[in-house]
Design a protein that fits this description.
single chain, 316 residues, alpha/beta, Rossmann fold, UDP-galactose 4-epimerase, domain 1, 2 domains, seven-stranded parallel sheet, two-stranded parallel ribbon, 10 helices, 18% strand, binds nicotinamide-adenine-dinucleotide
Length: 316
């Protein structure tokens, strides 16, 4: 069983990833500076007798631990709202933070799994998005601190692999949701659920015809760990997500139906550089790790709504 270092372990995905690793018998050392994650989230989803958390900034040295075989670099602000509030921290987490992880991995003979994103495809000119599509990203736009730093991260990791033979892997994660997302992080699912629970209009940007493909968090972390443990992957980069594509308005309708409220929306213009369609091509994940998402959207949303009701908004 391996010792894994998980950066961003107190965040939405990092905590769930830590729990999937310990469930499979591995030990976890989490590192987080609590920019967008929280101790509460770590305690609810990540903590166990095989998992510890250190509060530290991964732009500096990583903690000295012997025997680390796997490094999951997940530390980075991720929601558009968090990235807009912390643009330089976002760039540094994916540049300096990833560089620290790669140097640590070389020194310890460890493997690095990097959390990249479907945002590297930008506003895609190809649909669905396959891993060999290079993307269409505005390097000067308001989303660039995130999109471009992830693209830089992919290039940095690939350079370590070429120059030093590092075993580095890149997961391009498409929109993921589930219990544990901060209710104020501005991402679509918490925003829609919280608005419905409070009886407020659901904010819809740009008419709602734009599409998203939403993956339930348990499916995603299962795929990430399968990919991380694969002995000889024949590709370094893999999409993970759900390929069931829905319009944003459809998703809003489904959320309010599951909450049991009537759909009321408030219309806003589409933000600059917002992608109008997103769907992963999952052929590579199916071929390499025999993986596919298992949770239907209706079921995943019902579970997420139940969590918000129970943990977050008992008073609503
Ligand atoms: N959730 C998604 O749908 C999604 C989609 C694509 C990619 N990703 C990627 O997955 C990773 C995790 O995303 P998430 O949704 O869990 O976001 P999150 O904001 O919930 O978690 C990120 C965590 O990283 C920590 N962090 C940020 N900068 C740090 C630093 N310098 N040092 C230490 N810790 C730091 C934060 O405190 C937080 O706990 C990110 O790299 C993100 O880009 C997520």
């Amino acid at each position: 069983m391996a010792i894994a270092l998980v950066t961003g372990a107190a965040g939405f995905l990092g905590a769930r990833l830590s729990s999937e690793l310990t469930r499979r018998g591995h030990s976890v050392l989490g590192v987080d500076n609590l920019t967008s994650g929280s101790l509460e989230n770590w305690q609810a989803f990540g903590e166990s007798d095989r998992a510890d958390l250190i509060i530290a900034n991964i732009e500096r040295e990583l903690p000295h631990v012997e025997g680390v075989e796997l490094i999951f670099h997940f530390a980075s602000p991720a929601s558009p709202r968090d990235c807009a509030m912390h643009p330089l921290e976002t760039m540094r987490a994916n540049a300096i933070g990833l560089d620290c992880c790669c140097r640590f991995a070389l020194a310890h003979g460890a493997r690095v799994v990097y959390a990249s994103t479907s945002d590297v495809y930008g506003s895609p000119a190809e649909h669905p998005q396959r891993e060999n599509y290079w993307g269409n990203v505005n390097p000067l736009g308001p989303r660039a601190c995130y999109d471009e730093s992830k693209r830089y991260g992919e290039a940095l990791l690939s350079s370590y692999c070429r120059a030093y033979g590092l075993d580095g892997r890149i997961v391009r994660i498409f929109n993921t949701y589930g219990p544990g997302m901060r209710d104020d992080d501005g991402r679509m699912i918490p925003t829609f659920i919280m608005a419905s629970l409070r009886g407020e209009p659901i904010p819809i940007f740009g008419g709602g015809a734009q599409t998203r493909s939403l993956c339930y968090v348990d499916d995603l972390v299962r795929g990430i760990v399968d990919f991380a443990l694969l002995e000889r992957p024949w590709h370094r980069v893999m999409n993970l997500g759900n390929d069931e594509e829905r319009s944003v308005l459809d998703i809003a309708r489904l959320v309010s139906a599951l909450v049991g409220s009537d759909l009321h929306t408030a219309e806003f213009p589409l933000p600059q550089d917002e992608p109008v369609q997103r769907r992963p091509d999952l052929s590579r994940a199916r071929m390499m790790i025999d993986w596919q998402p298992a949770t239907p959207l209706r079921q995943g949303l019902a579970q997420t709504i139940a969590w918000y009701r129970e943990k977050r908004c008992v008073a609503v």
